[in-house]
Design goal:
The structure is a single chain. It is built from 9 helices and no strands. It is mainly α and 219 residues long. It has one domain. Helix 3 packs across helix 4. The longest helix is centred in the C-terminal third of the chain and has 20 residues. The two termini are 15 Å apart. The N terminus is likely disordered.
């Protein structure tokens, strides 16, 4: 595949909300009818990871799913799940119940939320893990404030990266911000290199190519 730079002068593809919902129900966009079962399988397989590096764990897991669409609601559960799993693998006390909870929270985030609700599911998944570590609830004060600040950092980072919908890009962006945010809470994760690490670009027909920081550059 050749490098594809985004055509900034071209009109973006338009899709209505009704068209989007029809595509989802037909299994052709974001999640489709296989969304729930794929999320269940991915969440189950993720429990076997021995990684302490969330991005490495994500790459390894999603590389196993031949024929799995590049976009999907499983990212909404996986990002938070892998963050907590990697913390547990690093020696922190993270119970199975908390990992089940972050997956359940992620399953409630609808496909297409990034473009229709302004709330990317992968970012919300990382925020869910952060909320669990904080003990944040809707009626909390200081933890809720810190959670909202963290969520703002996630959204700002992804907006600065820019471009079209890409679940892998969103996941990497979430994990980048999460590492520093979790460290501030006393939960340290290993440093990972994110620039140029994407190996999924050929599967994405709306890939931003060299305009994306995660797109692999020529050596």
């Amino acid at each position: 595949m050749t490098d594809r730079a985004r055509q900034k002068t071209a009109q973006p593809r338009r899709i209505s909300y009704a068209q989007f919902r029809s595509a989802v129900q037909a299994g052709a966009c974001c999640a489709g009818t296989a969304g729930d079962s794929t999320t269940d399988l991915a969440a189950l397989v993720a429990r076997q990871t021995g990684h302490t590096e969330p991005a490495a764990a994500l790459d390894e897991l999603l590389s196993q799913g031949e024929g799995t669409p590049v976009h999907g609601v499983w990212h909404h559960a996986l990002v938070g799940e892998l963050l907590l799993l990697c913390l547990r693998n690093a020696g922190y006390s993270i119970s199975e119940e908390l990992i089940d909870e972050v997956v359940d929270r992620g399953r409630q985030i609808p496909g297409g939320a990034c473009g229709f609700l302004g709330a990317c599911g992968a970012l919300a998944s990382a925020a869910s893990a952060y909320a669990i570590l904080l003990g944040s609830t809707p009626v909390a004060t200081e933890p809720r404030e810190r959670l909202l600040e963290f969520s703002a950092k996630l959204a700002t980072h992804l907006a600065e990266i820019g471009g079209s919908r890409c679940c892998k890009k969103s996941s990497y962006a979430a994990l980048e911000v999460a590492r520093d945010g979790f460290a501030e809470l006393g939960f340290e994760l290993p440093e990972e290199k994110f620039e140029g690490r994407c190996r999924f670009f050929a599967q994405n027909d709306t890939c931003d190519g060299v305009e994306c920081v995660y797109f692999p550059r020529k050596r």
